[in-house]
Structure formats: structure tokens, C-alpha cells
Specification:
17 helices, about 425 residues
Length: about 425
Amino acid sequence: MTLCASSKDGNEIIANNVNGEEGDWGFSHDTYKLMHSSLAPGPGLDGMNRIMIQNIAHSLNKLGAQGNKSLNMRLREWSRHEITMATTNSVYGRYNPFKDPNVENAFWEFEKGLDMILIDRLPSLTARKARRARDLVGDAFRHYFEAKHHEYGSTLVQNRYKTSMQNKVSVGDTARLEVGNTVAVLVNTAPAVFWMLFSLYSNPLALQECRDEVESVVSDTNEINGMRRTVNVTSVKQNCPILISAFQEVLRQRTLGTQVRQVMQDTMLDGRYLLKKDATVIMPSLVMHTDPALWGPDVLEFNHKRFTKGKNTQSSHKPNPKALRIFGGGTTLCPGRHFATTEILATVVMFILRYDLFPLDDRWTPPKTEKTSIAAIVMEPDTDITVRVVPREGTADCEWDFKLTDSTMVFGIAAEDRHD
């Protein structure tokens, strides 16, 4: 694989029965199956989520370490670093290679140059920095696996290593493939957090309604040292429809994934469109997500209540769940959607409960996204925004406790997860 620089032998193993024509076996089949099982709602996912939540909570505590004093920070930079560390700590455990700042920086250098690596034209010249960065991250993962550090990581990384060994993939190739796996878990979540915070803080009504909703699930207890405020992220997902709608709306506006399918037999659609066998069908989500026929005349506007129901609804055009393809769909439905959703929502909830954000130039001007990586599904901001972080009145003196109770509930963001 050009992306990960796996060996010829490794590529042959990966390509063997890659589409399952010969049955349910092979590295690709086994990897796809373990990804979905390891990241499905249940104990394994809950364990990863708890580590992630505590990492984000610790980061938010650092922002409030100066009491009621404000501070300035770069929003994109903060989102990228904190999501990188929270995610990789939850996946790779105590020996997480990304604890080395050189590895973290190298990963994002690699991500920046993915386009030129995949184009693969004179890569020693056009993608020199990105390839060097990829190799640095790959070497870190090789050490991680050779030292058996994955045994202290999540069920996900343990199962990935086990699957590689069962399919006779070398440790070196396992390490190189893990670089690609890290692209999947990091590249979209970080900008999604950025856009969620940007969209809410630039829309006072949406921010206030989401805050009011989240406040309703906060539990307060008086203790000797003052007030303790407890937030159960599981309750947020179950009881905050406006926040969930805002999350869906942000991703509707900011995702640009493309689903690709091969036509297996001649198929007539709607009595008008003949899809010939072996043809390729390309379905850009951006086209579906900006179609007025699907979303109504306000399709280009940010409507934080677009996906709510009943008394909370604020859209005259009922959205079709199948038209929202923020996590792909069908056989390419994102296996990490449950983890990513919890991570994004947990980060946003912690932020809006504790802090106000103000752009230093007094205007929330959305940055351009023209330099978004070819591997990204969520648009990446080209430039950063410096914001002033101000503790909300009455929050600095509280003790905050963020937790997640056990849950096997399938959160129905994707149409494939819904049962209504």
C-alpha cells in the first residue's frame, strides 16, 4: 500500500480475497469484522470512552487553572492536540507512542502530505517530508508492538495485532498499517470538534439552548470543599436532542466524504437510470447534504434544530435520515462512529458548561477549507482562530466530575443504526 509503505509480502496478504469473493476469510475481512466488534457499544468501547473523557476533562481543568482569569488560545491547535492525545491514550494505553511530541508532530506532518504520497509522482522530491514523518511514526509503532506494549492498550489495538499475526502479517507491516489506522481515528474528529465549538459560540441562541439542555442533566452535590457538578455523558446522549441535532447539522455542513460502489449487475433506478454491470457509482455526500429538495430552502444555513422532533423542531422540511451520510453507509459505514460521536459531544459539553469563547478580532469568520487533506471526511480549517477563553461566572469554584455509565445503547446518528 502506497499510503503506509507496507512490504510486497504484506500487500499480497492484504489483497488476498479483499472483496470476499471466495468467502468470509482473509486479512481484510477479519480486520473489518474486528473493527466493528471492538468499537460497537459495550464494555470495550466504554473503557476507551472513559479514558478519553478523563483526558479531555484534565485538559479543560488546565484551562481553568488560573481561576477566573481569561487566557488566549488557538482553537484549531488546541482541538488537534487535545483530541490527538485523548484518542491515542484511549487506544494505545500507558505506552502510547504519541506521548512523544516528535511522534505527534510527525503524524500531522505526514497527514499534511498525504496527497503527494498517494499521487506517487517523484515522491522522494514531492513527498519527502511526509514520507520521513510517516517512517518516524511507523518506527514508533514497531517498537510499541515489539515491546508488547499493545497488551496494555485497548481491546481494539490488541485485536488488530492478533489479527495481523493470525494472517501472517509481519510486525513491521503491522506497525506501518497502524499509521494508516491512526489516520482513521484522528483526522476527522479534531476538525469536527473545531467546527462544533465554532458553530455554537458564533450562534448565541444555539449555544444558550444547548447549554440549558445540558444543564438539565447535571447533578449538583454540596461537599465540604464546595459544589461538585457531575455530568454523565451517557445521559447527555439520551436526553439532549437539541445538542445532538446541532452535532448532526455541523457535520451535514462540514463533511465531504464520497461513497464509491461497483455495480454488480445491470440495475435500473427509478425506471430511468440504467447502471451497467461493472460500472462505478460515485456519491459525494456534499451534493446530498446541500440539495434543497432534501433539506429545504434553508439548506445552506446553520439550523441547530433541523434534526429535532416534536416541540423542539425548527424546520418545515422533515429531514430524511438516509440523506445524512456523515459516517458513510452500507459496507463502508464508519466503525468508529460511536467512539467519535461520544468524543466530540463530551468535549463540547465540557467546554460549553465551563467556558465562554470570544474571537480576538470580535468576529467569528469561518476559515477557508481549501487545503483539506485527501484522507479527511470533515473539512479542515486552513487557518487558525485565536480566541479568548473566559471561565463562566460561578464555574471556577466548582469541582467538575465527568463520567460515562455502562451502555449498550446503539446511538442512532447513522441511518443504519436507527430503528424508528
